[in-house]
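Can't attach files on this board, so I'm pasting raw text. These are the components:
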Amino acid sequence: MEVIKAAILGFGTVGEGVYEAIQTHQQQLQNILGVEVQIAGVLIQDLEKERNIADEVLVTTNFEDILNIPDLQVVFEAIVGEDPSYSYLSQAIDKRCDIVTANKVMFATYGEKLIKKAQTQNVKIGYEATVAGGVPIIRTLAQQLQVNKVGRIQAILNGTSNFILTEMRNKELSFENALGIAQELGYAEADPTNDIGGFDAFYKLMILSSLTFGEQPDWDEVKIEGISALSNDQLEEANQNNFRYKHVAELIKEGDNISASVSPVLTDADHPLYNVEGVDNAVVIEANLAGTLTIQGPGAGKKPTASAMIEDFVHIIQSKKTSYALS
Amino acid sequence: MEVIKAAILGFGTVGEGVYEAIQTHQQQLQNILGVEVQIAGVLIQDLEKERNIADEVLVTTNFEDILNIPDLQVVFEAIVGEDPSYSYLSQAIDKRCDIVTANKVMFATYGEKLIKKAQTQNVKIGYEATVAGGVPIIRTLAQQLQVNKVGRIQAILNGTSNFILTEMRNKELSFENALGIAQELGYAEADPTNDIGGFDAFYKLMILSSLTFGEQPDWDEVKIEGISALSNDQLEEANQNNFRYKHVAELIKEGDNISASVSPVLTDADHPLYNVEGVDNAVVIEANLAGTLTIQGPGAGKKPTASAMIEDFVHIIQSKKTSYALS
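---
Top answer:
Structure tokens for the assembled complex are below.
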């Protein structure tokens, strides 16, 4: 059986999730693709740390070692931040590797460039995992709404801030206590600024903008407002009137103009985001033919993120195999 | 510019919707596909009826005329019922036409056969419009959850019965009055048996079963229960306790066994179908990696159904064009 060699960059929750899912779903992958999928290398930061990786896998802190793996075909990227991810992926594309990434900050900034580079090298980039975890929003927009014209997207793209708002309202917890619980449960980082400040949602929204409208608004003109100014009194008053505050990321296209914002929004019971609770993410798409579509599900976590990356991987290999078969 | 010739079988709401959408989105289709899409023929039942179809289009009551259109590439099928649709589509496949269908009754019965036949003739079948209108559930299951193992699907697949339940609860209307309003608004047929009796949802559920599990349960063993036995008192009592009755179509796979049912189900406020109101459809997918995903949107209507069919069409032409380009 043909073997496809892949490498994983970064072995935090996401990288480990991909590794594990490929082991546990090896038979399924073979059934679908007719090939064996082999993780040939893993790029890590700290060689001393104990990890559950098979002995035959090259584990290294040196990206050159990864690039030098013979016949490497696919790179799964699960590093945080712009650098050195962008540089690594550029090099991998130049070596004709397909890319599957979960790195939203990097992709919001360099996604359009990487896609162009990938086209010139005839390789593919999967980035489903950069937005809303296991919720297949990227592929839905890219493939299932091609003729449709999308006028507006409203979304809950950060599970942590949505969880905090839900806990504050349901359990009358203070912001600090709700954040503490989110941190205990592993939803929030030690430094939660990106989540509660709206920056995480902002990066994801910019990726959706590139995909949907072919461009991003000027970042300086995007209003980004976090949730930490919301008081329990405000949440309670809204609730009494059957409203809920949701941390909404919004994109609107009017004529040639794209406007974007991330901010707490008062939603009524008929709003499609009103009932999106806890750590779930959801994306509401207003399309001219299909109407208003909502896609909801787990926006983060080891398995959902691994799901998005492996489904991307399968899609990439299939698109290549079809052409091989027919050429 | 290359021309792709297509025909439409049936010119009711759905057929007309496809025709109109292809006219209004011609530029968009040319941008995406690099071809002109031409409706070359329309099959109708009654030649006397006035229709808004351009003079150069062949309008006929004879399917042979459609089959004889030179270089016909795609057939959009929007007829109701098993016959003669199945026979027409079989013949079209034998002439190497790709198929896009909205016919759920026919496809629930003959879909697996038609797909096999299409494979032997190397043509494609799009059937997104058979289930949940413009909600892209078919392609989500077929393409975005390939590695994931789906254990359960719960869905609201009939907008009419969901609309009636919503009106009865919200406005305390009797079943008869709510049905009357659904008929006035064009949601329900003159004979609403298929909608309120659960049969329409049943056919759609069987299509989802074939797609998700590769087979259907024995039809005789599927419990199909309509909504007409529900009283206002029952709905009101549920509502007081924060429950709602929803007309739920459910598929469960345990081991090798598939069980299916369509019936009124009491949902609590945490249930993903609790807030699906009015004529919306929604499908909840329990997948082992991605988690619980919900997709919601307009389940019927001229534009949403046309949307599903045209997006299918684009997908089919793209999958062929890629191979042309590479071969």
